[in-house]
Design goal:
Blueprint lengths: L1 E3 L4 H17 L6 E4 L3 H6 L7 E3 L9 H26 L4 E3 L6 H9 L4 E5 L6 H6 L5 E4 L12 E3 L23 E5 L6 H16 L3 E5 L5 H10 L3 E5 L5 H7 L2 E4 L3 H10 L3 E3 L9 H10 L4 E3 L6 H13 L1 H9 L9 H13 L1
Parallel strand pairs: 1-2, 1-4, 2-3, 4-5, 5-6, 6-7, 8-9, 8-11, 9-10, 11-12, 12-13
Helix pairs in contact: 1-13
């Protein structure tokens, strides 16, 4: 099996979870990845023990004529490398999990009549998947409402999440007040979250709140010092390995609203304050967040004028015990913990 994924952890983590599910099904399965060469790919995919093949690609959407010219200049090299990979590896199925790097492997597999599967993590599909949905054999979606071509070949599987999500504890008893905030800026952190958390650190310290903050690598030392000066008990790190432990520890989540984070937030049932990434394609992170905001399982604060003040107000709402526990008890659609296994089963059916 060949898996193509690049860009953020929102693409790379579910790709790894799918690969591991294949290995559980058949330990002899040979799996290789295709990426665009970003450092995060080596950290996540390479760290999971899977080989990565680099295909040079750049994004096109919102980059105008320059983005288009760069894409066209890299087109021959990317195509040649994809062809060489197919000749060497001879994939029986090709899976695309997001990012522009999925384009060449899926298209070449289509031409060679090799079964293809793509997974769409977002409520609003990205450009690559919007195009590839026309030729892929099957499509899995994280959100049932996702709008894609070829509805007759779409499977609502949910989004692959970590196996360890099953180990997350149920959370705070009704008799206790929330005191622990887990801040997740995504796999690569978020400048806005780093800054706004520093602005409220002093107030949080007075309330005896603790923080576990996943931040940008370059912000680590600065955040540690800011929290120290505010007398806030805080753990700061650029990458959290034990996410199940972090979710079990947390009472409240403050996070970007990429599909992976949103799915995990809904699985662990922690009241969440979402701050969507403002430059996401089609503002898809806002659309994602609203699937939890509408049923009352989360709050949302968008960046822009007055962001710090609005963030503070919404965070303090979540820290109010009655509001917090009412939010936890509100009903919400259960998210599947078996999405990766369902995708594997579908891929095996295509191969057969």
């Amino acid at each position: 099996m060949l898996i193509a994924a690049s860009g953020s952890g929102g693409h790379l983590f579910p790709a790894v979870f799918i690969a591991r599910a294949f290995k559980r099904q058949d330990p002899n399965t040979k799996i290789e990845f295709v990426g665009s060469g970003r450092p995060l790919e080596e950290k996540i995919v390479g760290g999971a023990g899977f080989p990565i093949n680099r295909i040079p690609v750049v994004g096109v959407k919102h980059r105008g004529i320059i983005g288009l010219l760069q894409f066209l200049l890299l087109f021959p090299l990317a195509l040649l490398r994809t062809i060489k990979l197919f000749i060497r590896f001879k994939p029986q199925v090709v899976v695309g999990v997001g990012g522009y790097v999925t384009f060449f492997p899926i298209v070449l597999a289509y031409v060679l009549r090799i079964p293809t599967w793509i997974h769409e993590a977002e409520l609003k599909p990205g450009l690559a998947n919007a195009i590839l949905s026309r030729i892929a054999n099957r499509i899995s979606v994280a959100f049932e409402e996702a709008s894609l071509n070829g509805k007759n070949k779409v499977d609502y599987t949910g989004h692959p999440v970590r196996e360890t999500m099953r180990q997350v504890t149920s959370g705070l008893p009704d008799s206790q007040s929330p005191t622990r905030i887990l801040v997740l800026g995504g796999s690569q952190g978020a400048v806005a979250l780093d800054k706004v958390m520093v602005s409220v650190a002093g107030d949080l310290a007075k309330r005896n709140i603790e923080v576990w903050h996943q931040c940008r690598t370059e912000s680590t030392n600065e955040l540690k010092e800011a929290y120290r000066q505010s007398a806030l008990i805080a753990k700061v790190e650029p990458f959290i390995e034990d996410m199940a432990g972090a979710y079990s520890w947390a009472d409240i989540l403050v996070a970007r609203s990429g599909a992976g984070t949103l799915m995990e937030a809904s699985v662990v049932n922690r009241p969440t304050l979402f701050v969507p990434y403002p430059s996401a394609q089609g503002d898809h992170q806002t659309a994602n967040a609203m699937t939890m905001v509408r049923p009352g399982k989360a709050l949302i604060v968008k960046e822009g004028e007055g962001f710090e003040s609005r963030f503070r107000d919404e965070l303090y709402k979540l820290l109010e015990p009655n509001f917090y526990h009412e939010m936890r008890k509100k009903p919400y659609e259960a998210r599947s913990l078996n999405a990766a296994d369902r995708i594997v089963e579908g891929c095996l059916q295509l191969i057969r």
